[in-house]
Each structure stands twice: as structure tokens, then as C-alpha cells.
Design brief:
binds glutathione, about 210 residues, 4-stranded mixed beta sheet, 8 helices, alpha+beta, about 50% helix, Glutaredoxin
Length: about 210
């Protein structure tokens, strides 16, 4: 059986949601962040050289990196669900948004988080550049969600499951006001109504207030 190692308040919520949406049997192992540093505990670090969540185990296979895990589970157990085939008219959108999530958006959030935590003033030219990159990303997502209900098109795909963390739980680490983005907020309302998302968040982060607005 698939085992998901989930670190509280982290990107591994994506994998719990993925497995809930696919209706897979899995064992969930919860790990808590160090209360002082917020880093991963030794129980997680010992699982994989990266020492980050998520990590899954499937038989002898131990896999890290949420994008890799997403492709692995969808390819092996998804039966064609949550993905678009190359023949789908929105295939390019699917591939773009799937990779934008961890290739650009989440690193941009992380860079801004570091600047914020180091107390770099917003008018510092590097901080300003990093912030404007992120704002450009939000504007792009806002435009896309004015064209389609979900990032790849009219249905939920892995691209959404990859992206939602950065728009929600990541805001515990880098607070971000979504008021200027009504399409993003409407999208998060649609996500909040999805039963598999609700189940995943309850199982992975019971009691955590969901930042969906
Ligand atoms: N690109 C990686 C990022 C993994 C990552 O940085 N996870 C964070 C949680 S959001 C983590 O484990 N942090 C704890 C630590 O670095 O000690 C992925 O998507 O899996």
C-alpha cells in the first residue's frame, strides 16, 4: 500500500488531496515541524536525502518532490484521471500550469518569504524586483481564471492540486492579500467545495484554519 509522509502545514497536503481525489488506499504518516525552527523533524529527514515533505513509499520505492510524486501516482494509479492527454485541446495549458506551480510560483513565494523574514525593506531594489515577479504571476493566474474554471480548463486536474498550496497554506509563511484577485478567490471557493480537498485537509491538518479567502 502507498504510504504518504505528510508534514503539517506543508506542500505534502497536495499528495493527500491527490490520493483522496483518486480514491486510493493509502497510509498517512503525520510528521510535525520543530516547534522552534519550523523545520522538518528527524523522522522525516531520515526518509530521503532531501529531508523535505512530501515523501511517499510504494513497496521498495521511496520518492520525494511533489511534482515527481504527482506524476508517479497519476501515471501508475490514476487511470487517466486528473491529467489531459496530448490530444486534448487544452494539453499545453495543462502542462504549463502543472509546471508553473513548482517551477515558478512556489519559488517566487519562497523568495518573498525569505525577504520578508529577513526584514528587507520593500523598496530595496532586489526585494522590489522579487515582489513584482510574484505580482506578475498572480496577475497571470487571475487572467487565466477569468477564462477557465480551473487552471487547465473546465475540470480539476493535477495542475490545480499542485498550485492551490501556494495560494492558501503558503500564506501562513508569506501573508498575501488576495482581495485584488476576484477570480482567484472565486476559484478557491470552488476548491473549498470539493469533497476530496475537504477530506484531505481534515486528515492532514485537522484544526488548521484554511486560508481560502
Ligand atoms: N520542491 C519540493 C519542496 C519541498 C519542501 O521544501 N517542503 C517543505 C514543506 S512545504 C519542507 O519539508 N520543509 C521542512 C524543512 O525544510 O526542514 C516539493 O515540492 O516537494
Amino acid at each position: 500500500m502507498l504510504t504518504i509522509h505528510h508534514l503539517g502545514k506543508s506542500q505534502s497536503e497536495r499528495i493527500v488531496w491527490l490520493c483522496e481525489e483518486l480514491g486510493l488506499n493509502y497510509k498517512l504518516v503525520l510528521h510535525n515541524r520543530d516547534p522552534v525552527t519550523a523545520l522538518a523533524p528527524p523522522s522525516l529527514v531520515e526518509l530521503h536525502p532531501l529531508g523535505t515533505a512530501p515523501v511517499i513509499a510504494d513497496g521498495d520505492i521511496v520518492l520525494a518532490e511533489s511534482g515527481a510524486i504527482m506524476e508517479y501516482i497519476i501515471g501508475k494509479y490514476g487511470g487517466g484521471r486528473l491529467t489531459f492527454a496530448p490530444t486534448h485541446p487544452e494539453y499545453a495549458q495543462y502542462v504549463f500550469w502543472l509546471h508553473y506551480a513548482n517551477g515558478n510560483l512556489q519559488p517566487a513565494m519562497g523568495r518573498n518569504m525569505v525577504m520578508h523574514r529577513l526584514g528587507v525593506p520593500p523598496d530595496n531594489p532586489i526585494a522590489a524586483r522579487i515582489r513584482s515577479r510574484l505580482l506578475g504571476g498572480f496577475a497571470m493566474i487571475e487572467t487565466r481564471l477569468g477564462e477557465a474554471s480551473f487552471l487547465a480548463g473546465d475540470t480539476l486536474t493535477a495542475a490545480d492540486i499542485m498550485t492551490v498550496f501556494s495560494l492558501t497554506t503558503m500564506r501562513y509563511f508569506y501573508p498575501f492579500d488576495l482581495t485584488p484577485y476576484p477570480n482567484v478567490r472565486g476559484y478557491l471557493k470552488r476548491i473549498a467545495a470539493i469533497a476530496s480537498y475537504q477530506r484531505a485537509m481534515k486528515k492532514g491538518d485537522l484544526g488548521m484554519k484554511l486560508l481560502l479567502d
